[in-house]
Amino acid sequence: MPSSKSKPAQQEFGAKYKLIGKDYTTPDLYAKVTGKSKYAEDYRADGMLFCKLLLSPVPHGRVKHLDLSKALAMPGVKAILTQDDLPAPADSVTDLGVVIKANQQGEKALTMEPTYQGEPILAVAAVDELTAAEAIEKIDIAFEHLPFVVDPLDSLRPNGPNARTEGNVWVRQPAPPAKPGEKPPSPPPPQIGELKWTDADFAELKQGRLPMGKAQDEWSYGDDQRGADPADQRRAQGSVGDARRSPAGLRPRHGQHPRLCDDRR
Q: pLDDT (tens digit, 9 = 90+) per residue, 151-199?
């Protein structure tokens, strides 16, 4: 509960503000702690459908057989979506007018070649949750098992398995040269490639050291001498310290990743 006692930090940081630097009660606090708050799952609308996903049971595979007939024949099942029913990834435009090319090899909402266990394969829409869940059980599906890897170092070993059939790393593509008088074009999306280290690189692992083979990206570093300057360190500590301080002691937490959405179009 908010404390009636004034804190030194509150006086220092929040003297001229109503909420900043002070403990306060959020308007929805009482409803949340008493269970009276309504969330997306609590609302219903006329004609509302419920969706259930069929998730991949394998870490890497390809759907080689799919029969939806029994699920579609069930009363209350309205539709079943696969990757063929979804639009292709589209380019996007930033506020500055820069076009970001869509990556056709990126993760999709539904896929017929999952690259991790739990990746969505298809979606069932039905009149209620139970019907959608039962329809999932009626779907006849079979997978071709493909090589998979859970440790990046294993994927970098000679002849090691790849997480995808195309390779194990994203390869950055160079941007095309800019034309005179025009804005530099945006770089094309990265492509999947293969990177393997040598047995000599992995000899370090036997000595208890992390192998450092060929890097996919090159990194540059700043001026370490300037970073060691005491004056610069004090300035950096002061700015970080001010940003991290929380005078009120606690900050309200709000959901940033809702699990549901409501589309009433």
A: 988 999 999 999 999 999 998 888 888 888 887 777 788 889 999 999 9
Strand order of the sheet with strand 120-126? 50-55, 120-126, 77-81
Does domain 45-146 fall into CATH 3.40.190.10? no
| 3-class DSSP state of 134 | helix
Range list for CATH 3.90.1170.50 in the chain: 45-146
Amino acid at 264: R
**Cα distances (Å, whole numbers) of residue 144 to 66, 67, 119, 141, 189:** 12, 15, 15, 10, 29
Q: For residue 193, what are its two tokens?
A: 């490639």
Contacts of 81-86 spanning 24+ positions with Cβ under 8 A: 81/110, 81/122, 81/123, 81/125, 82/110, 82/112, 82/121, 82/122, 83/108, 83/109, 83/110, 83/111, 83/112, 85/110, 86/110
Q: Quick one: tokens of 36? A: 């009276």
C-alpha span between 90 and 99 (Å, rounded): 11
**Residue 77's beta-bridge partner residues?**
126
